[in-house]
Amino acid sequence: MQGNEELILIGRISGTHGIRGLLRVVPYSGDADSIASLSTFIVRMPDGNFETYGIRSAVEHGKKVLVALEGIQDMNAAVVLTGSEIFVRREQLPALPDGEFYWQDLLGLKVLDEQGGVLGELADIFSTGANDVYVVKNGGEEYLLPAIEDVIIKVDLDMRAMTVRPMEGLLDL
Predict the structure, then answer these.
(1) What letter does residue 173 receive in the DSSP assignment?
(2) Which of 136, 129, 132, 130 is nearest to 107 (CA)?
(3) Domain boundaries, the chain
(4) How far apart are CA 54 and CA 32, in angstroms?
(5) Do 107 and 125 meet the contact criterion of CB atoms below 8 Å apart?
(6) Residue 106: what pLDDT?
(7) What pLDDT, in 10s, does the model give residues 17-72?
(8) Would you put residue 98 in left (φ > 0), alpha (ψ -120 to 50) or beta?
(9) In principle, which of 22, 68, 99, 156 could form an S-S bond with 56, CB 3.0–4.6 Å?
(10) CA–CA separation, 104 vs 122, rounded Å?
(11) d(Cα 42, Cα 34) in Å, to the nearest integer?
């Protein structure tokens, strides 16, 4: 595998399902369809190496996806992959509508308030169901910003910056 910079993190294998080697996959996009539509994905193995797997089948199962991989025929082979992250190459991903971004592209952005003051760097993102939450870190300080239109004013990937308008009390520690 060449450099990891071309890989986009899309989910995590959360466990096995049944005895025939099915894997439960949690999609980070919240959209099970995004994984169900793939023909291959790349798994970061427990030893840190990357391995590409063909997908025999993938079906939505609640908020997860049940995936059958080529070469994984039973629970013993599947359980080794539990907890592993899954990736795709950028060219496998569909283009997004204006105003939507892949998490991978947002991580590391400098976060500014409307006056240009630096709040920190976007260090993590998690989904709450209602909306994503951006974790902004600046030294020992950490802010949680809801990824909603009223708060996130502008994202400029070329400048690697995000401008926000925090709601009153949101930045109080």
Answers:
(1) -
(2) 136
(3) 4-91, 103-164
(4) 17
(5) yes
(6) 93
(7) 999 999 999 887 666 777 878 899 999 988 899 999 999 999 988 888 999 999 99
(8) beta
(9) 68
(10) 11
(11) 14
pTM of the model: 0.69
Q: Which residues pair with 22 in a beta bridge?
A: 17
Q: Which CATH number fits domain 103-164: 3.30.1370.10, 2.30.30.240, 3.90.1150.10, 1.10.15.40?
A: 2.30.30.240
What is the token pair recorded at 118? 């630096």
Task: Scan for tokens 């592209």, then name that residue.
Answer: 105
Query: Domain 4-91 is of which CATH architecture?
Result: Beta Barrel (2.40)
CA atoms within 13 A on the CB side of 112: 14
Q: Please check the confidence at residue 1 and state whether its pLDDT lies above 50.
A: no
